[in-house]
Amino acid sequence: MRLFPLTQFRERKYIFITLMKKIKERKTVDYIFSALVMVSFFMLFLFIDDILGALTPFTFINAFIVTFVSIILEALPFLLVGCIVSAILEVYISDSAIARFIPQNKFIGVIVTSLLGLLFPVCECATVPIVRRLRKKGVPLYIAITFMVAVPIINPTVILSTSYAFWDRPLIIFLRVACGFIGAITIGLLISFLESKKIVKNVMLHENKKAGLINAQTHEHEEGKGKKNILNRLPGLFHHAGLDFYETGRYFILGAFLASLLHYIIPKDILLSLGQNKFISLIIMGIFAFALSVCSEADAFIARKFVSQFTSGSLVVFLILGPMIDIKNTLMLASAFKARFIIILGIIIFIVCVVLGSIINFTPMGDMV
Question: Using CA atoms, how far apart are residues 115 and 85, in angstroms rounded to an integer?
Answer without folding.
Answer: 17
